[in-house]
Structures are given as structure tokens and as C-alpha cells.
Amino acid sequence: MASPRLGTFCCPTRDAATQLMMSFQPRAFHALCLGSGALRLALGLLQLLPGRRPAGPGAPSTSPPVSTRAPASTRILRAVAACDVLGCLGIVFRSAVWLGFPAFVENISAVNATDIWPAAFCVGSAVWIQLLYSVCFWWLFCYAVDAYLVIQRSSGLSIILLYHIIAWGLAALLCAEGLLMLYYPSLSRCERDLEHAVPHYITTYLPLLLVLVANPVLFRKTVTAVASLLKGRQGIYTEKERRMGAMIKTRFFKIMLVFVICWLSNIINESLLFYLEMQPDSTEGALKYVRNAAKTTWFIMGILNPAQGFLLSLAFYGWTGCSLDFQSSRKEIQWESMTSSAAERAGPAHEGSCAPPDGPAARKGVRAGGHTSDEALSMLSEGSNTSTVEIHIASGPRAVSEADGVPRVQGDL
Questions:
Q1: Domain covering 9-48+67-331 in this structure, CATH number
Q2: What is the pTM of this model?
Q3: DSSP code of 12?
Q4: Which of 4, 13, 1, 204 is nearest to 108 (CA)?
Q5: What is the CA radius of gyration of the chain?
Q6: Looking at residue 371, what DSSP letter applies?
């Protein structure tokens, strides 16, 4: 699991709370982390398999996209998935070494040890896990920011470089600052004073708290803007527009629900441990329930932290729709501004497509800042069966839709 306590494990002199976590069933805990991480990686590989959905008369075309450049949203989601997988690999590797080489790990606690490799392994694995999960948090924050900017028609591929700087730059800066403060002036002194560890904990939990606080606000603003966008497309807010808005709102709710489930235990555990550290004697009987709660949340962290990536893939794509097939057009978010010629947009519909005939009324999406309302909504509904098809149906003339009886698209909202 990902916790700043992994970094303090490398200090030969530890506070009572850290020693409590390190000595409580270490083999069972690392076996649990190893099993949870391995299961997450296995399920993640299954999620990469293309989903199989029966093609019906309302099924969208699966032809290759017009542009070979991946949209900004797809790049963000790939970065989130990649960071989570690499962080999970770090957890699996660290737990495997702790289980397979107990004598090697015991040298970490030696104050006058001459072998530097145990300490190097401990510090290196802790930095690897903390950095990658911090980058993952920053990418999730960038996803919320970009969703809001897209619906405001202020985003595109050009801003992806800024997201890379935010995610990797801020994560590396905060991790380096926290670890330097923790291990200064040496590993043998890093836990003698609580003040050494506090900056390390703050820099670790800052991006996590940012996602917990800022993302719901950004998602709520985006949902509100989506409702206004849907109302403004044709001046009438019908059941179809309500379904589209509800689908986007549900997706954002799932993302935040997964994040809270996977990381709330970390905040609770760290609060309990800090409370124990502030007590004169953390072993007294009155604190028994606090210690038991800290141990329980410690094991819960070992289960839920590695599961974040798989649960997020379910929130984004569902079980069978989570293919990262880069040639699947209906699973890509159309964030980038459409600078291609009008002929590419007005070309003949593919056979089997539900898109209405081309015409001035069918292309009623209002273009502003290089974006159309259809493109913004397609971005927010990526991975859904109703993403692009229902958007184009809704943007067509209502009289034609009602007269011709456009087939209803089947899919989960």
C-alpha cells in the first residue's frame, strides 16, 4: 500500500506509532499487500481485452478515428493507468522482498549496519511508491480541471504539456522536499524528532487531499455547465438531455466514490497514529481501541490502495468496455479542437451508423473557441454505449427524429 510510513520504516530509530505498525503481523500484512497487488494487476490485464458487445442496428461504427493523434483526455487516462500500474508493481516488489528475504530486511533496523543495500532498497521502494501514486493523484486532479475546461471550450491538445508539468513536476518537487526533510542529516537521525516526519507526511497527503476537496467542486461545476449546454442546444430540456446529464453526473460520482473508498482509510490511519504519537505513553490500556483501530485501517489500506486502478477502470469504462484499444473510435474522448476541414465532418455516414443525414439542422452544435457542444459532451461520456451516437441523435432536428423513429440506443447510463 502507499503510505508515508513506508519511508519512516527505513529509519533505525522510530517513534512508537511507526514501530507499532511495523511490528504488527508483518508477514501477514505484506502477504496481503502482495496478493492484493497481484490481483489488481491480473484484473487490469483482463480489462485491457476488447469488450464484446453485440452489434445492432443502433450500434456505432468502429472505424478508425479521423485523427491519428490521441485526444488529451485519452492521454490523461493512460497516464493515470500507467502510474497506478507502476506504483502497484512497486508495492508487489517491496512486499515480495520482505516476504522472501527476511534476513535482508532485518538489516534495515540495524543502527550500525555496514551493508547499505537494505537501507537503499527500503528508501528506493518507498520513494518509487510515493512518487508514482502522487503523480497519479495529480493526474486525477488534471482530469477534473480539463473536464471543466473542455465544457467551457477552453482546452485542447496544446494544454497537455502543462498537465505533464503539473503532474510530474509538482509530484517530484514535493516528494523530494519531504524526503530530504525526513532523512536529514542521515537515516540514523530521521525519526528522533517528530518535526522531521511532519513535512514528509504533508507532502505525501497534499495531492490526495487536493483531489478529495477540489475534484468534487470541479465536477459539480462541470455538471452544471453541461446542463446549461444541453438546454442551450435546442432551447428545450427533454428526457434525452436529462439522461445525458445524469450519465455524466453518475460517472463523476463513481470516480469520487472509488477514490474515497481506496484512500479514506489512509487518512483515518494517519490521524490515529498521530494521535498515538502525541500521547506520553501510547501503550497504556486506555488507548487500546485506538491502537486496534489503527491496526485495522492499516490492513484495510493494504487491500484497497492497490485496488484503485482496477476500480477506476470500472468507473470509467465498466467491466467489458475497458479496452484501451487505441483504434476504437467510440471509446476516445473528443477533447481537442476540431481544426480539420468541414468536409471531414460532413462526409457520408458509415454503414450501420445512427447519425442523422448531414444538413444545416443536423450540425446545429454551436462552435465556440474551436469546440462544439457535441464534442464536449462526447468527451464527458467516453466509454459509454451512448456516448457519440446519442449526442448526434439529440443534436438533429426533433421533427425528423420523431417522424422517422430513430432507434433507441441500448446501453448502460
A1: 1.20.1070.10
A2: 0.75
A3: S
A4: 13
A5: 25
A6: B
